[in-house]
Design a protein that fits this description.
By secondary structure, this protein is mostly helical. It has a single domain, classed as Up-down Bundle (Cytochrome C Oxidase, Chain A). It is about 70% helix and about 0% strand. The chain contains 17 helices and two strands. Strands 1-2 form a two-stranded antiparallel ribbon. The protein is globular, with a radius of gyration of 23 Å. About 45% of the residues are buried. The chain binds protoporphyrin IX containing FE (HEM) (2 copies). One protoporphyrin IX containing FE binds next to helix 7, helix 11, helix 13, helix 14 and helix 15.
């Protein structure tokens, strides 16, 4: 194995994205906790005037979490490990370096545009695609710049073979470009109507059922290609590196990769079961969702088996704990999702809190834990300092694990109770409960979810503090922590 110390890598861009991961992560989680408590205690909606209402803050939470925290985490780690697996420094190409920096600063400008417009209530009202056309155009520009640097770095690499993580990152790049372009085809009403209405307003190019189908083809694949594919790229790099173990099976990684690519794109219709979408589309989505267990578990099992014979590391290394639990939560949510996609189960689950429960065992347990551990792995190597406190990592792990368990278990109970109450009828066939009855029953579970989220946020603050202290006053390292992994 070639030692990394032989090559000096440039972490300028990785560090910038690390800062945005931390900042946007804390903002997303803080808003998450606030809206969770707003659902439990509706009076909180009036705390900050119109800007603090659930309706204004919810898209800010989802977008800050998905496109702020998660994308920044993906990029922070790519700009770190991309150089290492391709065995080339960004600094070797002024073009790649410039694209990297431009990528960060234009992305930040986009974030400001998004925050301001969403707070003002400007939205297309399509979930995860709320941004109006001027911002959509800016996002395309950012994506092109990211692509120029990304493929530029691949182009000047010394390592001939592309490691597994690079395949997943290429898939992330191509799929998001395709999904984003098609779902955001919109007609600016001001220009189309000869000057009527707000200049930034638009309507979707598609209508009715077609619009819904394109939206959920996009929506679920945002899950596939933001919350899944690039996170798998991360775990394929960081788990072998941190544990010093070789990836268990390259064959399995190949099978899971192509399985995931082929199956995911057909599953989006499971968001539209029992709607006006053609029946065959619904059935196909349901079947493909169940098949999706195979490639999903293929990656997760490959990761868990990478730890074969080395489970003792769970006791000594908190980062291994984070990553093993992340794979476990990934298995968990990719079993739960297919179950929810079975038509008869979806009839009960859809519109209930079981869905946000599913969302957060995936996003907190899988995405969150992977991003936290990736940055904790990178910090000593980027700053050349030892992690400030190992015991804080342990504390973070246990506080957040407790938080996730409280979050999803309360939402399971809430969701299933809600679903059962909505469909309950008396002996004459009349509905047994009014809507407000369900709201009253849900109150304690909403409170428990808020507490779970608060614990998760406290853990994230501990994480941010630990990284900051590592940067500021961690013990200086003469050479970076070594391992014996062939994954480079
Ligand atoms: C095998 C993989 C998966 C399948 C088949 C699946 C299936 C589903 C189903 C059936 C729904 C509910 C649709 C509804 O009735 O409204 C759903 C919602 C959702 N899932 Fe998954 N899921 C999978 C994995 C994941 C993972 C790993 C994550 C995140 C890390 C995730 C995030 C989401 C999100 C964000 C939603 C909510 C979308 C919305 O309504 O806004 N899913 N999923
Ligand atoms: C402190 C932690 C968090 C809390 C308390 C929290 C809370 C919430 C709440 C209350 C909702 C609205 C649910 C509803 O409309 O009924 C929500 C939605 C959502 N959150 Fe979070 N969240 C947290 C962290 C995260 C993170 C880290 C991510 C992603 C990485 C995330 C992704 C999402 C998504 C995708 C949705 C939309 C789900 C759907 O439509 O079903 N959240 N969150």
């Amino acid at each position: 194995m070639q030692s990394h110390n032989a090559l000096e890598y440039d972490y300028t861009v990785a560090k910038l994205f690390t800062i945005s991961t931390i900042a946007l992560g804390l903002v997303a989680m803080l808003i998450g906790v606030l809206i969770a408590f707003e659902l439990a205690f509706p009076d909180l909606n009036h705390l900050l005037g119109e800007y603090g209402t659930f309706g204004r803050l919810r898209p800010l939470h989802t977008d800050a979490a998905a496109f702020g925290f998660t994308l920044s985490g993906i990029w922070a780690s790519w700009y770190y490990y991309g150089q290492r697996i391709l065995k080339v420094s960004m600094a070797e190409s002024p073009f790649v370096m410039l694209m990297g920096k431009l990528h960060f600063w234009l992305y930040m400008a986009g974030v400001v545009g998004i925050v301001v417009s969403l707070l003002m209530g400007i939205t297309t009202s399509k979930e995860y695609a709320e941004f109006e056309w001027p911002i959509d155009i800016a996002i395309v520009v950012v994506w092109l710049i990211f692509g120029a640097g990304f493929f530029g770095l691949i182009g000047i690499r010394r390592e001939k073979y592309l490691y597994i993580s690079v395949w997943y990152m290429i898939a992330f790049y191509v799929a998001i470009a395709m999904l984003y372009l098609f779902n955001n085809m919109e007609v600016p009403t001001y220009f189309a109507s000869g000057g009527y209405g707000a200049w930034y307003h638009s309507v979707s190019m598609y209508a009715g059922t077609n619009d819904a189908m394109v939206q959920w083809w996009y929506g679920h694949n945002a899950v596939a290609f933001v919350f899944t594919t690039p996170i798998i790229a991360m775990i394929y790099y960081f788990l072998p590196k941190e544990s010093g173990q070789a990836v268990y099976s390259y064959k399995l990684s190949l099978l899971s990769f192509w399985g995931l690519m082929f199956v995911y794109l057909w599953a989006g219709g499971h968001h539209l079961l029992y709607s006006t979408v053609p029946d065959w589309v619904q059935t196909m989505a349901s079947i493909f969702s169940i098949v999706l267990i195979l490639p999903s578990w293929g990656s997760a099992i490959n990761m868990l088996l990478t730890m074969k014979g080395e489970w003792g590391q769970l006791q000594t290394n908190p980062l291994i704990k984070f990553m093993v639990l992340a794979s476990t939560f990934y298995m968990f949510s990719t079993l739960e999702g297919p179950i929810q996609a079975i038509k008869s189960v979806n009839a009960l689950a859809h519109f209930t809190d079981w869905i946000p429960g599913h969302v957060h065992d995936g996003t907190l347990g899988w995405v969150g834990f992977m991003i936290f551990s990736a940055i904790l792995h990178m910090a000593p190597r980027m700053f050349k300092r030892e992690i400030w406190s190992k015991s804080l990592m342990e504390t973070q792990f246990w506080i957040q694990t407790t938080g996730i368990v409280l979050y999803f278990s309360s939402m399971w109970i809430a969701g299933i109770t809600q679903g059962m109450m909505w469909r309950a009828t008396d002996q004459y066939g009349n509905l047994a409960y009014s809507f407000i009855d369900t709201v009253t029953v849900l109150h304690p579970y909403y409170t428990i979810r808020g507490v779970g989220g608060l614990l998760f946020l406290v853990g994230a603050i501990i994480w941010a503090f630990n990284i900051f202290m590592t940067f500021k006053s961690g013990k200086v390292l003469e050479r970076e922590p070594q391992n014996t992994s062939p994954a480079s």
